[in-house]
TrEMBL record:
Lineage: Eukaryota, Fungi, Dikarya, Basidiomycota, Agaricomycotina
Pfam families per UniProt: AP_endonuc_2
CDD domains: AP2Ec (cd00019)
Name of the protein described by the UniProt record: Apurinic-apyrimidinic endonuclease 1
Species of the source: Suillus plorans
GO cellular component: mitochondrion; nucleus
């Protein structure tokens, strides 16, 4: 077992509170907000509203969950709010041995460059918390569509894509995961696949070493990448095949199953082609059609939607249609060792759900076959209990917010609803 060390330097860089070093008196606050000086005279400049800051306590490193030393590197897509360096600490907080992050806002075309201080802090924390770059899988922007036949729009996507790759290299990271794109109904899939590969080739020439990792998709609309054959075709057009790979998303694979496939309720069984009657588990099917050497990571997500639904609806481990047995097979399969296995499951604003899921998956990777059924049931019950508790809290909070919003006006109501929306389908046609 490996336990993260406490660091005075890290603790010092994360103060527990953010007190105002220059507090005003109550009278001064009132007069300032009213636009008056102490003697009642009008001020020349309009008042500035004081920025609200969070002051909640952050856990000390000694309070972090124990990180299991194992062959399967299980983690989650954690927040990088406040700076990319915070993602490293957030991964340690949930007991992750791997993690994903956005290296800039995933919903903006342009972002400010990474500061030298942020880059240095990220690298320092990677060492402090003992994370390897090969176990970090940054996720690309949802805006990018490298398959768009419109040259101007595709160039805009490419610029955003390239910027992400360059940021990853600044941070010393080795992998970059992205959604391949869409035809937007204006090209054939073959044409869009060629455009995606062309963008990858150009990006490789403009970067040093980063590996571009294509994610399989759930299959809605005109999206590219829901079938292994499409991933294989993209890779076939890439010139430097040492710098391209695939991230398999279990929810997407479950949702994208073709009608010509007869598949059981689990990802690890019965990818059966009706023409050849060849029976393969999901990873073996990938190995046969694409090649295991291209498998660079997995997204571990159960599915709220049924098999073949083409809907990208993530569910907590063991609570969806895929089932916990599938994930036990994945985290005990030697072919998934030493690559990032990343949770993108709902947290209901409570990251301890990821802590529970990571712990459960680590236990499943080590369990004796004779204890499987009892252990699976126990772990599902633990996850279910925690998820229900936090889901109820979030529902209650949303209800209170909605009631408060009604008294504040319709514009604030719209904003708050948008901020609390879950289960957005990012497997739709891209820009």
């Amino acid at each position: 077992m490996v336990q993260t060390r406490r660091s005075t330097a890290v603790a010092a860089s994360f103060p527990l509170t953010s007190p105002d070093s220059h507090p005003e008196s109550s009278k001064r606050r009132r007069t300032a907000l009213a636009g008056e000086s102490d003697n009642g005279a009008s001020t020349k400049e309009p008042p500035r509203r004081k920025k609200r800051t969070k002051t909640e306590d952050k856990p000390l490193t000694e309070d972090f969950p124990v990180r299991v030393s194992g062959s399967w590197k299980i983690g989650a897509h954690v927040s990088a709010a406040g700076g990319v360096e915070n993602a490293v600490r957030n991964a340690a907080i949930v007991g992750a041995n791997a993690f994903a992050l956005f290296v800039k806002s995933q919903r903006k075309w342009d972002s400010a460059p990474l500061s030298a201080e942020s880059v240095d802090a990220f690298k320092s924390r990677m060492q402090e918390f003992r994370y390897s770059p090969k176990h970090v899988l940054p996720h690309g922007s949802y805006l990018v569509n490298l398959g768009n036949p419109d040259e101007e729009k595709r160039q805009k996507s490419f610029n955003c894509f390239l910027d992400d790759l360059q940021r990853c290299e600044q941070l010393g990271l080795e992998l970059y995961n992205f959604h391949p794109g869409s035809t937007v109904g204006q090209a054939t899939k073959e044409e869009s696949i060629a455009l995606i590969a062309e963008c990858i080739n150009n990006a490789h020439k403009m970067t040093k070493y980063i590996t571009t990792v294509i994610e399989n998709m759930a299959g809605s609309g005109n999206v590219i990448g829901s079938q292994f054959s499409e991933l294989k075709e993209i890779i076939g057009h890439v010139e430097d095949k040492t710098r391209v790979g695939v991230c398999l998303d279990t929810c997407h694979a479950f949702a994208a199953v073709r009608a010509s496939f007869s598949v059981s309720q689990t990802f690890h069984r019965d990818f059966r082609d009706t023409t050849s009657q060849q029976k393969l588990d999901g990873i073996s099917a990938f190995d046969t059609e694409v090649g295991l050497s291209y498998l660079k990571g997995l997204h571990l997500n159960d599915s709220k939607a049924a098999l073949g639904s083409k809907k990208d609806r993530h569910e907590n481990i063991g609570l969806g249609h895929i089932g916990i047995s599938t994930f036990r097979h994945i985290v005990s399969d030697p072919r998934t060792q030493d690559i990032p296995l990343i949770l993108e499951t709902p947290t209901f604003e409570a990251t301890e759900i990821w802590t529970k899921e990571i712990s459960a998956l680590n236990r499943l990777s080590l369990i004796d076959d004779s204890e499987v059924l009892e252990a699976e049931l126990s772990l599902v019950n633990e996850i279910t209990s925690l998820v229900r508790s936090h889901a109820a809290k979030k529902t209650e909070k949303a209800s209170k917010t909605e009631k408060a919003s009604k008294t504040e006006g319709p514009s604030k109501t719209r904003t708050r609803k948008r901020n609390t929306t879950e289960d957005q389908d990012h497997d739709s046609d891209c820009a």
